[in-house]
Design goal:
Blueprint (H helix, E strand, L loop, with lengths): L1 H40 L3 H10 L2 E6 L6 E2 L5 E13 L11 H7 L4 H10 L6 E7 L1 H10 L4 E10 L7 H4 L11 H5 L1 H4 L4 E7 L5 E9 L7 E2 L4 H18 L3 E8 L5 E7 L18 H4 L9 H11 L7 E3 L4 E4 L2 E4 L6 E3 H7 L2 H10 L4 H8 L26 H8 L8 H13 L2 E2 L14 E2 L3 H12 L19 E11 L2 E15 L6 E8 L8 H19 L19
Parallel strand pairs: 2-8
Antiparallel strand pairs: 1-6, 2-3, 3-4, 3-5, 6-7, 9-10, 9-19, 11-14, 12-13, 15-16, 17-18, 18-19
Helix pairs in contact: 3-4, 3-5, 9-18, 11-14, 11-17, 12-17, 13-15, 16-17
């Protein structure tokens, strides 16, 4: 009996011990849980909050609005329109989602191609699916709610004037940075500063709530160019027509404000549409008015005559004997179109006499002609800051290089851009002041430097007027109702072996109206193919139409209305 009692006591003690052990373990677990809860809500709360936010809160970039480019009258030339970018996080993408069929259709892709791309980049967290889509298309894609596919807002550059102003304005790349033209030259000015905002995203990376703005996006600053879009359209139309009718390789036209040096027109052919760059070729990107060089030919003769008058050795009445129509200098022969005999300074310009210009240049100090060419801006930058602008070439020839000094007097042996040639004519239009040219609208009067006496500029301008009158080489440049001064130029194109006999550059540089000059206009047509190739035949008519439109559009009063015959009244 006692043995049974002992066994019962031992069993009871074993049960008590196990219950105690279980109780202790339960208390330990409960204590651990309570301790962890206390730790989570006190010591680790900040850490856990940060970790949770890191998995749900994101800092997103806010695109900045690029500055607007306008013409001098406020007409938009480059604006930024809101568009959207479609991108994906392949690591979170669901390649079996039913919305992929519709998504692929909206992106102009096959579903199989879309799935293959997502699977190929499954280890990545960001890939572009399509950029710069319309907001409407973006909204349709958002409604599909495909996991891992996202929509962000950005801006696309649009050019309302298209190919008419593209060589000057330029364009931006897909990232919004300037690539050509004024977009590139003023990229920092036009570019804004990207902003940042805090957003909450779900586990699929979709934005579900905007928390706050960390840094506001700062839009870029606007630029007002000097060009007049109305004149730009008309000049572009005329330039395109002459290239087509004469089958020319290219052409450029520049119109400057004679009193400020502002560029009112700058057009080139061939051109391109900056809104659709799928068919752009590299040569078509050039702004030929500031990048392409050519020998200006006889358009330099008015400046040579100005140098002669400034020297004091010649007056308006001075006469040069150009007989027998040519002159031998060393082993070179310089010719006129025919024997003009004795010519005064005005007639040398009117008839475009190479012999007359040569004799004058060689009679002056060796630096006289070149110095004036340099002072009016040739052989140096025009200072516009335009990307790719060329300085041209204005060599220095010592006294013994008589052939080179002679050819320079009538525009050979140096090179200019159309813009430089227009700038060189500014002193003849405004009374002897050289002005810096500007592609941006000026806020105040331009500051010029005197490079020739006012009287000399006025006299040479009067000589140039005879070029557009009967007997002159530029009669087709005349404008009904207005006095026009100018100079033609027909230049053989240079080749590796010298000058081509059948390739020409046709030029006309002019000033209008003579009584109160408003515009300096240069038209250059490169390699016209056909029976007409002289500057007076090809470039002068374009000058006439451009200047006629500009004068009438800007309400410049006529200064040469034809006089009606006086009626005689007979009294009876």
């Amino acid at each position: 009996m006692s043995d049974n009692n002992d066994i019962s006591i031992v069993e009871s003690a074993g049960r008590s011990w196990r219950l105690l052990l279980v109780g202790v373990l339960l208390l330990a677990v409960a204590g651990g849980i309570v301790s962890k809860l206390v730790s989570l809500y006190t010591l680790d709360q900040a850490f856990l909050q940060d970790q949770g936010d890191a998995r749900s809160l994101r800092t997103m970039l806010t695109p900045a609005h690029r500055g607007v480019i306008t013409d001098r009258n406020g007409e938009p030339l480059a604006v930024s329109a809101p568009v959207a970018t479609i991108w994906a996080d392949p690591s979170k993408a669901d390649t079996h989602h039913q919305g992929l069929v519709r998504l692929a259709s909206l992106l102009n892709m096959k579903r199989s191609d879309l799935v293959a791309r997502l699977e190929k980049d499954s280890s990545r967290q960001f890939i572009y699916l399509k950029r710069q889509v319309t907001p409407e298309l973006a909204r349709q894609i958002e409604t599909l709610k495909v996991p891992g596919v996202h929509v962000d807002v950005e801006y696309k550059r649009y050019y309302p004037a298209g190919e008419v102003s593209t060589h000057l304005v330029g364009f931006t790349g897909i990232e919004g940075a300037g690539q050509e033209g004024m977009e590139l030259a003023y990229n920092e000015w036009l570019s804004g500063e990207t902003g940042r905002k805090l957003v909450m995203q779900d586990r699929l990376g979709r934005t579900i709530k905007h928390i706050k703005s960390i840094e506001e996006a700062k839009p870029g600053q606007d630029i007002q160019l000097s060009i007049d879009l109305r004149l730009q359209y008309m000049a572009y139309r005329e330039l395109k027509a002459v290239v087509q009718s004469h089958k020319a390789d290219s052409a450029s036209a520049v119109v400057l404000d004679a009193n400020t040096g502002e560029v009112l027109v700058m057009v080139n052919q061939p051109s391109y549409n900056p809104n659709d760059r799928s068919k752009i070729d590299v040569p078509g990107l050039r702004n030929r008015a500031v990048t392409d060089l050519f020998e200006p030919g006889s358009t330099m003769k008015p400046l040579t005559i100005a140098a002669a008058l400034m020297s004091g050795k010649y007056t308006m009445d001075s006469v040069i004997d150009t007989s027998p129509g040519y002159i031998r200098i060393r082993r070179s022969t310089i010719r006129d179109h025919r024997n003009y005999g004795k010519l005064d300074l005005t007639s040398i310009i009117t008839k475009s006499s190479n012999v007359g210009a040569t004799k004058i240049a060689l009679s002056l100090h060796e630096d006289a002609v070149r110095n004036l060419f340099h002072n009016v801006g040739l052989g140096q930058s025009s200072g516009t800051g335009f990307p790719g602008e060329r300085n041209g070439s204005l060599p220095y020839y010592p006294a013994k290089r008589v052939v080179e000094r002679a050819t320079m007097s009538y525009g050979y042996g140096l090179s200019v851009t159309p813009l430089q040639l227009a700038q060189a004519y500014l002193p003849l239009a405004n009374g002897g002041l050289a002005l810096p040219v500007s592609l941006v609208k000026l806020d105040g009067p331009a500051k010029g430097a005197r490079v020739m006496p006012k009287g000399v500029a006025k006299n040479v301008l009067g000589m140039m007027e005879t070029v557009t009158q009967k007997g002159g080489t530029g009669r087709r440049a005349a404008v009904y109702g207005y006095r026009v001064a100018g100079k033609t130029g027909t230049v053989h194109k240079s080749t590796r072996g010298g000058y081509a006999d059948d390739k020409y550059i046709s030029v006309f540089s002019g000033i209008v109206p003579v009584s109160d000059p408003r515009f300096v206009i240069v038209v250059m047509v490169n390699n016209p193919k056909g029976q007409e190739y002289y500057g007076g035949e090809v470039a002068a008519p374009v000058f006439s139409r451009i200047s006629s439109n500009a004068l009438r559009l800007l309400n410049v009063a006529p200064d040469q209305w034809p006089q009606k015959p006086t009626e005689t009244v007979v009294m009876k």
